[in-house]
Please model this.
Amino acid sequence: MLDWQGAVASVTHHPLFGIGVSLGAYQAAMALYERTRLVFLQPVLLSMLLVVGVLLACGISYAEYRHGTEILATLLGPATVALAVPLFLNLRRIRQLFWPTVLTLIIGGLAATASGVWLGWCFGADHETLMTMAPKSVTSPIAMLVAGQLGGVPALAAVFVLTTGVIGGIFGPGILRLLKVQAPEARGMALGLTSHAVGTSVALQEGETCGGFAALGMSLMGLATAVFLPLAVSLFV
Amino acid sequence: MLLRGLTWLILFQLFGTAIHQLFLPMLPGPIIGLLCLLGWLMYRGDVPQPIELAASSLLRYLPLLLVPPAVGVMVYASVIAQHFWAIVGALGISVMVSLALTGWLMNRLINLKVGQPEGGRDA
Model:
């Protein structure tokens, strides 16, 4: 008698299973996205759905998957550091556009944070959820840190950050086209400032300048939020 | 080449982590590392080829690196299902409005600046 169940279990619980599923799902999602170019088939979202489907079908917990894909999560650190390169390559352009960038950061950043909290309050979210929502437009390591400082839930902050990023990544390019925002600097800034890493990955596909300004928007928004949001909340709430 | 560049990126991140522990608890290590690398590149005036190679290779797969944290949504499925419309509504409307405002504003400011005569670079 062949031990089919044992074989399946040893495959699904193998340390490489999580990485294998992620790689497979990502390539399938990319292929589908490139073939169809449908906005709602955003690669991160689609890969996430595929992986969740496989994990549920095989009865694997998130903790086990997370443990197996530690290496991918760890590489997110050096990838964040690597954003300094597109930033540097666009530095001359950024210097020329210094005041537009600073003004956009202040107004756009305030709008992104305040509108999220205000809308959450309108929809009846409690204090803890509001504090978790406040840093939603920032890259997840900063958002998790800030949410913790504000009295929110760090892990849930990562979920809100991702939801925001995916919605921005899906609808962002369309909204910008509709508003006739043609300057790649402005498109990149909008995507990076409001939709952090997911927006930046969309912007990088549009081109070098767009990607550079997205990285700029993301890091400036991250810095501003990390420094000023806890201050603002301690003053006003 | 790729490995040398990757080593540099990791060194910068580790340096950032040390600074985070010592002086700047409100900024995460990778962001401090990003700023340090940017400062170093500005000091040098160009991007060394190994770093350029490692950076472009890593950034090409940025969406893949975001998949594992995204899958974390499944842990909060019940909380999210309970407040689904509040969460998606608030986050969705907020990101779309602020994205539209940011893009429009920046585009507007760039056009204003381009509209100026060439001499007006001191601004």
